[in-house]
Amino acid sequence: MKSPPHSKHAISLINAKPFYDTELGSLRRITQDDLPILKNLSIKRLVLAPGSIREPHWHANCNELAYCISGQVLVSILGNGNEFSNFTISSGEMFHIESGSLHHIENIGDEEAVFIIAFRHERPKDFSLHASFGAMTDAVLGNTYDLASSHFEKLTRSMAPKYIVKRDGKPNIPSTAHLPNRHKFDVEGMLPPVSDTVEMGYVHKGKARMSVMDPDGSLDTYYLKPGDCYFIPAAYPHQIECVEGDEIHFVIFFDQPMPQDVGYRTSATAMSREVLAATFGIKEMDLPTFPVTVKDPLIVGRKNPVDKPTSKL
């Protein structure tokens, strides 16, 4: 049974029913089937036990962007144009996979590896290497590899994905896997309230309150806890604030490679005080002294105590 969303913008990912769950690891997902407002983005949580492998697969309709919560893995990619890549990923690092690129994720450490993975489609479609082999006859595979068909008789055949498999023995880590790679990169309050890109976030640590304004003028305010994810359509005014403890940790994905924001701080600089006064129906002298801002800040400090929400939680 699916856990119902506590807001049309947010739902728990960590409490979602896994579509794969064994001693090797687990996979959970939130797609448009679970959160109907989703568009251009969806999210998964991947857990790999030591020695486990997310089987070789590719995504037919979307790119993939993954963030490592914990653990250490080896990622191998066969990209378009026969580009081969191997690299390691540790906690706090991310990697990117283009649509159609064959790839695997292998836990090479002694602890669980946990990933939050975003996809550039509300309903991502996958194909596994195991299933694609199962779709072809021994003769076809033999012709493909210039071998006799008998070489493929011992392969287990099925057109169903295995999702996660177990490695036999120690990992084989290429000597170049620790070098820089274009697919991997490092990553390491309130967020800008308005964005012109679709945004999807996952709460790793802390508790936050979020408010999202919809085009009909309604305001959706809700609390977020670890394991929850949220979705913001393009250009919807919104804010996130820490309500307990000293900090919150989010993994945030966008549907554009270079997301841009239009924020409240810069909007007060872009408009004249006469226009702002007329907009808010007050005299110019009664306007706040807005600071001149030419680049909207990503995070701002808390100058005032947490106030009551203006919509029902």
From TrEMBL:
What are the residue boundaries of the Cupin type-1 domain, all occurrences included?
11-153, 171-288
Cross-referenced Pfam families, in alphabetical order? Answer: Cupin_1
Query: In its UniProt entry, what is this protein called?
Result: Cupin type-1 domain-containing protein
Which species is this UniProt entry from? Phialocephala subalpina
